[in-house]
Amino acid sequence: MNLRHKFDLKSIDFLSFYNQVKLINYIRRQIFLKNCFICLKKFASSEELLKHLETDDHIKEFPDMDLWDQPEYYFSTFEDDNLLCLLDDDGYNKDESKIKVIPEDIKFEIKKELLESLNDLELK
To answer: For residue 41, what are the CA distances in angstroms to 22, 77, 102?
Structure first.
């Protein structure tokens, strides 16, 4: 894939698995629509788009995260997309176990009547 498309999946392995999925789905959707995934310029043909990507060096650039970090890109552009099966979630996710999760403090009140009825149950 690196030779033909000038894209190496290892270049995005710093992203979480789900961000990798969104990025690839975003790029594939834009290419399918014949839009440049960097500048969003629309082209009449795939050949014109490819020429633009190569001449403007957009093929080597990383799209702005605001463009692809959207929930709609969790879903594949193509049905049964084998490319997404090649993604490895070993990179970024190894460190996720070190993320500290802080639970919220839950405040609740027990009504006096309920507490009294529970106490009555224990006595019987």
So the answer is: 20, 19, 43
